[in-house]
Specification:
Chain lengths: 190, 178
């Protein structure tokens, strides 16, 4: 059952995940956290962090991690859980793998038509909205704590602002910023 | 040849941090300059299509190039090559991370990392808004979409479908009458 759910969830994510990488996050979050409860919001944020620190696309990383965790939490052995990873990753890749081959085979000439271009023109601004939604959805008490715990709350806010300015304005490498955030967490939130 | 395809993309998959877009220059280096599988112009064309299509960008572009060189089997080799490194690495992390995530040191580090990750996602929103030519006339699309997902709990899939259909209808019936 969990295998079928994983397949359907990640197939849908692969099929509708326009904008790549971060823009897919609100889609993945909707399935993995809100609908199927495979991960909590903080686990999900941890996975995105791990994705940043390891090579490879965020989509593949989340599918692999989620597939394993979902099957493992359903009470199966490690070997079966590995199969869960493979199922989720395969399902994520499958729809666009087929789509890319179809485009290569016969639709290449249609890609530049006005009809296709106007669909893309509608999608582009929506993808910006998806990215904004991903940010808003991750601003939760699990990730930032609450004003009831003022120390953790304000440290989180400062880390957020510092990372935002660091990557956006000062163009510091994101992996370096994560390293600094980890150090700050270790010193201030231990 | 299949092995060369697999190895090339496996190598690209292993060394690129930060996801799909970081891979572009690596792929270009090997595919266009080193092996000359596709020429520069065609590569840019494939890139543009792979970017507009759904799914994992790195997989899309690998599939395109694999198919171009050795049809479906080539595409399987390149897609597998791209996906496999991160699959293996994340699988190992998934197997062991849940044992450590309750460790106080790890938990404190991730408590610091999580707000940083949210900032890393917030930052590109603004540069993407710029490149998607968001202005006063169309800013209601991303704002409305984001609020619908965040406040009303609308499934992002519906926002995507609505945007695609909206673009189609606008292009077909309204743009020409303006």
């Amino acid at each position: 059952m969990v295998f079928l759910q994983l397949f359907i969830a990640f197939f849908e994510i692969g099929l509708f995940g326009f904008g790549g990488g971060y823009a897919m996050i609100s889609l993945i979050q909707g399935m993995v956290v809100t609908r199927f409860h495979w991960l909590t919001i903080s686990e999900f944020t941890n996975v995105i962090a791990i994705s940043q620190m390891t090579p490879g696309p965020v989509g593949i990383n989340t599918a692999t991690y989620c597939g394993y965790t979902a099957v493992h939490n359903a009470g199966y052995s490690t070997a079966v859980s590995v199969l869960g990873s493979a199922t989720a990753t395969f399902a994520l890749v499958l729809p666009t793998f087929i789509l890319m081959i179809l485009i290569s085979k016969m639709f290449m000439k249609y890609m530049h038509t006005d009809t296709v271009q106007s669909v893309f023109a509608g999608l582009r601004p929506a993808v910006v909205g998806l990215l904004a939604a991903a940010t808003l959805l991750l601003m939760t008490p699990e990730n930032f704590s609450t004003p009831d715990d003022p120390w953790t709350f304000w440290v989180s806010i400062v880390i957020f602002l510092a990372t935002f300015i660091g990557t956006k304005v000062m163009k510091i490498n994101p992996i370096l910023m994560i390293g600094c955030a980890a150090l700050a967490g270790l010193i201030l939130l231990y | 040849m299949y092995l060369t395809l697999f190895k090339t993309f496996f190598k690209i998959g292993i060394v690129t941090f930060g996801g799909g877009y970081a891979m572009i220059s690596m792929i270009e280096e090997d595919v266009v300059r080193k092996y000359q599988w596709v020429d520069k112009e065609e590569f840019l064309d494939l890139l543009a299509i792979a970017q507009s299509c759904p799914g994992v960008f790195a997989i899309n572009i690998s599939t395109f190039i694999g198919y171009k060189i050795r049809k479906t089997r080539g595409a399987v080799c390149t897609a597998l090559g791209t996906a496999l490194p991160s699959f293996i690495i994340i699988l190992l992390i998934a197997m062991f991370f849940h044992r450590f995530q309750d460790n106080r040191i790890i938990a404190a580090m991730f408590a610091g990392i999580r707000p940083a990750v949210v900032a890393l996602i917030a930052a590109p929103t603004f540069s993407l808004a710029k490149s998607a030519h968001i202005n006063k006339a169309n800013c209601w699309i991303p704002i409305g979409g984001a609020l619908a997902i965040w406040l009303l709990g609308v499934n992002p899939i519906w926002v995507i479908i609505a945007a695609g259909v909206g673009g189609f209808v606008y292009g077909k019936y309204m743009k020409s009458t303006e």
